[in-house]
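tokens incoming
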């Protein structure tokens, strides 16, 4: 009986996603041409320290709803049109020790390709507070980074914040990606409902990202609050971040249950992933009704794994 309110909340959240968020983004994700869908795919090498080889369209297979689907186009990011917008979203209640890594974040930003636009936002009270708009001015981005509030910030709804950020993201024809720095613990539905399969806010954010073709990467950072001492909450947070990034075609970085001594290895790998991305275009099978459809992108090239969204949203026949 105690779980009935959460079930009701889950139903309401899912309805709100389907009725409001998804239709807004379906047009953006299919903006390439009428009837076509574009997704971002990242190639990863299974060999440590090595880059994935260049892949051609013939090296990749796509299945939509379990059925093999022809790939219309496969464009590497090296093409002139492959622009990038990246939001660095920092959980305001993350430990203040995150300040020790601001220099590493700055170095990562400065090393991004020239055509990359970066924005910095802090998650606070369920809202993304932007410190810079999208800009190619690296100094402005680096100077906007600051120490988090830590425990003084209270508990943020990180996944509702991410969903709101995506809803307000201006239309853009290039890649849209998020780097989330958080512990992944979202107490919106109570601390007993922080596991990935229990938190509707996580589903909300995941589906919003899939609908808008936003790829999410994450770096696990502990909080300064009491939840930092709970191994169960820490595991739930890491599992939630992993679910979010896997379902949107991204990747989660974490090392045990604490903060990494250095983020430089994370940023080295993330930079490699961002340089090994492709825009995949395909024509989905006609959908009878609006909804999410499973996707699976694979390759038979040895020692290469492809990261791609697990689902897309289709408007359905009118």
């Amino acid at each position: 009986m105690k779980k009935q309110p959460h079930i009701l909340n889950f139903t309401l959240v899912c309805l709100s996603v389907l009725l409001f968020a998804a239709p807004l983004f379906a047009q953006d994700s299919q903006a390439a041409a009428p009837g076509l869908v574009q997704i971002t795919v990242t190639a990863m090498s299974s060999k440590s320290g090595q880059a994935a080889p260049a892949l051609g369209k013939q090296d990749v297979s796509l299945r939509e709803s379990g059925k093999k689907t022809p790939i219309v186009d496969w464009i590497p990011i090296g093409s002139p049109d492959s622009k990038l917008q990246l939001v660095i979203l920092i959980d305001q209640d993350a430990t203040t020790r995150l300040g020790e890594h601001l220099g590493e974040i700055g170095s990562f930003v400065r090393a991004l390709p020239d055509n990359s636009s970066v924005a910095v936002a802090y998650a606070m009270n369920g809202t993304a507070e932007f410190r810079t708009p999208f800009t190619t001015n690296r100094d402005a981005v680096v100077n906007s980074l600051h120490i988090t509030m830590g425990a003084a910030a209270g508990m943020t709804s990180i996944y509702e914040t991410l969903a709101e950020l995506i809803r307000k993201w201006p239309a853009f024809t290039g890649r849209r990606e998020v780097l989330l720095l958080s512990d992944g613990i979202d107490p919106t539905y109570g601390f007993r409902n922080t596991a990935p399969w229990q938190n509707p806010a996580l589903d909300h954010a995941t589906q919003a990202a899939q609908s808008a073709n936003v790829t999410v990467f994450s770096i696990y950072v502990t909080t300064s609050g009491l939840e930092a001492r709970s191994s169960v909450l820490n595991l739930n947070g890491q599992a939630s971040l992993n679910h979010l990034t896997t379902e949107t075609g991204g990747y989660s970085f974490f090392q045990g249950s604490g903060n990494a001594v250095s983020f430089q290895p994370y940023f080295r790998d993330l930079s490699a992933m961002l340089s090994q991305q492709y825009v995949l275009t395909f024509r989905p099978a006609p959908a009878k009704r609006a909804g999410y459809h499973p996707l699976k992108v694979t390759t038979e090239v040895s020692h290469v794994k492809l990261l791609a969204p697990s689902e897309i949203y289709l408007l359905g026949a009118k």
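note: The chain has two domains: 4-73+278-314, 84-274.
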